[in-house]
Amino acid sequence: MTEASVGRGRIASLDIVRGAVMVLMAIDHVRVFAGVPAGGPTPGLFFTRWVTHFCAPVFIFLAGTAAYLYGQRLASRPALARFLVLRGLWLVLLELTVLRFGWTFNFDYASFTFAGVIWVIGWSMVVLGLLVRLPSRVVGAVGVLLIAGHNAIGPALFGIESPAWWLQLLYVGGAFELPGLHWQVVILYVLLPWVGVIAAGYGFGEIMRWDEACRRRACLGIGGVAVALFVLLRATALYGDPRPWSPTAEGMPSALAFLNTAKYPASLLFLLMTLGPTLLVLPFLDDARSRVARWLRVFGEVPFFYYVLHIPLIHVAAVLVSLVRTPASTGWLVGNHPMMPPEVPDGYRWSLGLLYLVTVVVVIALYVPCRWYARQKREAPHPWMRWL
Asked: What is the mean pLDDT of residues 132-143?
């Protein structure tokens, strides 16, 4: 979310991975507006959702890495702390205003709002801003501890019959009304595990400043351990996910159930499953020069600009598709977040082919403005560009 750089240049692998995540994010958000369920018993439905599980962990982890690298340019921890707190609050404000409108196409701000991924990145940045006065390795260790340990306290917190609103913000999630305001807040992303992810990413930023050989060994080592730990813990059902795997589980094939880890809140196994492979791939991308890599780098250089544009663009595309296919159901797309009730109207749901076709069109349409903005940031940067 901030500019990741070492010295005068950007780290290509970070931009490519971040750009790939933005494309996967478009798949997931088109899926939401398409009325396609999150996963399912068939491989097509399952993997349409599963591949997008990499989005939030990698997006937030690399936000922490970018914060560390940006701090190296500032050469002042107090300045970095101030920037992270202000930027975090700015992201929260945008989530509650601009992005809420992009999701809902209505101005009924007095009734309800929702706390999505930008919300949780914003508050995670605020917390990170309080932590960055500590050594980066300590911040990284705090992050790893939160990632590894939060599932131990989860059962006790979810066992509370009527959790306080702050506990819902922190870990439990769900909907609540702020006391005295009659304003409903729907928590899609809770704070606790994601603070750990951004803090771990911040600690990882130090590794990205090492020479290429050392960085490669570290990425392969950490990523390999994460993947091995995921396989071990998932296969034995010892710890790390509220939905233990069983080879005789009902509802979906055993192999798919093995990958069906909990995202809300993000379990230890969910994060090992997504961040581990990402770290394994990262060192092989520094020298990538293909056309696809160049495209992904454009998106990866301006991820938040891409994010702000892609929600309303997907929403408009969904309205247009609905007007052609199911005009009577178009009202479902205006006035409410599509992940919340009411249910998807009968006959509205798209096919997977249409879902992927619209995704391709959206991503292609986003390339030109993102390329323009990336060039502006490189060649004629303005101070306000740090915020978008």
From this structure: 97
1-47 pLDDT, tens digit per residue, is 433 334 346 899 999 999 999 999 999 999 999 999 988 778 999 99
The answer to whether the beta carbons of residues 104 and 335 sit under 8 Å apart is yes
Helix (H, G, I), strand (E, B) or coil at 246: coil
d(CA 158, CA 102): 32
Task: Report CA 23 to chain centroid distance, whole Å.
Answer: 12
Q: How many Cβ atoms are within 10 Å of 243's Cβ, its own excluded? A: 13
CA dist 7 and 166 (Å) reads 41
DSSP line for 60-126: HHHHHHHHHHHHHHHT-HHHHHHHHHHHHHHHHHHIIIIIHHHHH----TTTEEEE-HHHHHHHHHH
Pick left, alpha or beta for residue 162 (phi over 0 → left; psi -120 to 50 → alpha; otherwise beta). beta
Out of 110-114, 268-272, 278-282, least confident range = 110-114
CA separation (Å) from 298 to 61, 278, 370, 382?
19, 19, 7, 18
How far apart are alpha carbons 172 and 166 in whole angstroms? Answer: 9
DSSP class of residue 172 equals I
pLDDT of residue 286: 86
d(CA 194, CA 215): 24
CA-CA distance, 275 to 252, in Å (whole number)?
A: 24
The candidate with the shortest Cα–Cα distance to 284, out of 9, 12, 7, is 12
Pairing of strands 5-6, 9-10: antiparallel
Cα–Cα distance, 9 to 17 (Å, whole number): 16
pLDDT confidence of residue 9? 61
Contacts of 27 (CB under 8 A, 6+ apart): 48, 51, 52, 355, 356, 359
Q: Which tens digits make up the pLDDT trace of 163-190?
A: 888 888 899 888 887 766 677 888 889 9
The sign of the torsion formed by the CA atoms of 102, 103, 106, 107 equals negative
Enter the pTM of the model.
0.93
* Sequence-ordered list of residues with C-beta below 8 angstroms from that of 283, at least 6 positions apart, any chain: 13, 212, 215, 216, 219, 220
